[in-house]
């Protein structure tokens, strides 16, 4: 059976008490952590890719992705308030669907956070290298691009990964304070963009509105294809729930952090998308067949040669400002991205380490990974290991379709959490629920359907990588976790 070795929720809470993390985060800090995790590479970088796939219809893509996230957030809020411990979807699944499904979800979250953090490191490096080049102090080409992107070793991507690792080892509360400053910078930059771009909107820039149509199950162009990619722009809000064990009054503060951060980010995304598409246009580059070209391909690069189109820019928001004649403000928005993107790396690595920390505590991964630093009260071993892996991957690999790959793990986790809420409503209807998902029997099935819709519209590369990653995880579970988990020994 799949649903075996289910870990009772009461036991999950007892296990957390034996090797717990210090509670030091409040509702405001959690909301800022959520905003810090969400607003980043997605809106600063992927806006151009969304425009290439869907044209002005990318605004619909933002809405579709936001609705799926909102539905999943309501399910997350109920389980996070009931089980306020580290581990996010992994922990919730363990307590409802059993060990095997929990392992698959935890392993998938590793794909989400690990690849996601590396993607943002590379994105940050691109902005920083551009700034250095503009000031005639550029690094050698060999050190500006990863080996698998045609270069050698992306030094800046490697260094920012290590810097965030050190910050996370020092302490969660210190990380949260630094993150609060970075969030403020992002909010100011996006607010300035909105106030300058929206007055320049022209209705003619929205025609045609859906040049790529709605898309197809094989992924690629269209609104659904853009939604599957732009979903990365929302990835990270669930990292708030991974901080449950370090939250003061989690029953109240976790739902506030989840829903509050998602609401703020959605409003900003819609306003930014409207301003960008309406002010300078977001029509895609078309191929000989009349359909939008696939971003990141040689054909797309050839079409963009010498073009000032928004969909060709690697820094779309700054590019829009320059096209509107605000060159200095465009430069400052680029600098804001450089300052702000590390907060996204921070939260993705934060989520990765807390999930593997919890899996280790459950015996599914080596015990050494759940050691807590005596001074900083952080899981320093898994944090250092994660930081090294993320930094090396960022230094060698290109952004490419990694955002889609990261999304595949996220969508699985969201779907499992939504299913878990319904199962728990049936199995344990009398258990205290500080936060209840409204209309759960409507919201949760819609969340699962939304996740499935976006998954089938991911690129084929993302689907293949996801299946391969899952297969590797199952082998590791059979060789290690199956025999060494606490539940296996407990029932022996």
Automatic annotation (TrEMBL):
It is found in: Membrane. The keyword Membrane applies. Its main location: membrane. One of its GO terms (molecular function) is amino acid transmembrane transporter activity. GO terms for cellular component: membrane. Keywords: Membrane, Transmembrane, Transmembrane helix, Transport. This is APA family basic amino acid/polyamine antiporter. The lineage of its organism: Bacteria, Pseudomonadati, Pseudomonadota, Gammaproteobacteria, Lysobacterales.
């Amino acid at each position: 059976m799949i649903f075996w070795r289910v870990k009772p929720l009461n036991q999950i809470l007892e296990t957390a008490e034996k090797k717990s993390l210090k509670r030091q985060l409040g509702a405001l800090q959690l909301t800022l952590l959520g905003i810090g995790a969400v607003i980043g590479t997605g809106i600063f970088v992927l806006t151009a890719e969304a425009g290439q796939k869907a044209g002005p219809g990318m605004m619909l893509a933002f809405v579709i992705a936001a609705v799926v996230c909102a539905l999943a957030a309501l399910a997350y809020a109920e389980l996070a308030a009931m089980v306020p411990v580290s581990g996010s979807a992994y922990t919730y699944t363990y307590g409802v669907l059993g060990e095997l499904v929990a392992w698959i979800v935890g392993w998938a979250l590793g794909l989400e956070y690990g690849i996601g953090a590396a993607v943002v490191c590379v994105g940050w490096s691109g902005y920083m290298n551009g700034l250095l080049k503009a000031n005639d102090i550029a690094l050698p080409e060999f050190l500006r691009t990863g080996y698998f992107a045609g270069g050698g070793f992306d030094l800046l991507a490697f260094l920012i990964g290590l810097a965030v690792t050190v910050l996370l080892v020092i302490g969660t509360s210190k990380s949260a304070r630094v993150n609060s400053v970075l969030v403020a910078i992002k909010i100011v930059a996006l607010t300035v963009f909105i106030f300058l771009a929206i007055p320049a909107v022209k209705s003619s820039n929205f025609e045609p509105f859906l040049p790529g149509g709605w898309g197809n199950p094989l992924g690629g162009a269209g609104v659904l294809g853009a939604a599957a990619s732009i979903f990365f722009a929302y990835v990270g809000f669930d990292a708030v729930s991974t901080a449950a064990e370090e939250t003061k009054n989690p029953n109240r503060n976790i739902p506030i952090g989840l829903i509050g951060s998602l609401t703020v980010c959605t409003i900003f995304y819609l306003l930014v998308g409207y301003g960008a598409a309406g002010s300078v246009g977001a029509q895609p580059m078309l191929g000989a067949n009349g359909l939008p070209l696939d971003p990141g391909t040689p054909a797309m690069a050839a079409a963009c040669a010498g073009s000032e189109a928004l969909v060709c820019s690697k820094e779309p928001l700054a590019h829009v400002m320059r096209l509107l004649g605000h060159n200095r403000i465009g430069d400052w928005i680029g600098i804001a991205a450089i300052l702000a993107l590390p907060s996204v790396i921070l939260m993705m690595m934060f989520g990765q380490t807390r999930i593997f920390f919890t899996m280790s505590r459950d015996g599914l991964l080596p015990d050494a990974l759940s050691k807590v630093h005596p001074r900083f009260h952080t899981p320093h071993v898994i944090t250092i290991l994660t930081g090294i892996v993320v930094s090396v991957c960022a230094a060698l690999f290109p952004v490419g379709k990694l955002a889609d790959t990261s999304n595949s793990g996220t969508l699985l986790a969201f779907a499992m959490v939504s299913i878990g809420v319904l199962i728990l409503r049936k199995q344990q209807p009398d258990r205290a629920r500080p936060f209840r998902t409204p209309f759960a029997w409507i919201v949760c099935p819609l969340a699962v359907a939304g996740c499935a819709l976006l998954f089938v519209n991911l690129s084929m590369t993302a689907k293949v990588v996801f299946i391969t990653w899952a297969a590797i995880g199952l082998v590791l579970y059979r060789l290690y976790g199956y025999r060494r988990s606490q539940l296996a020994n407990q029932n022996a």
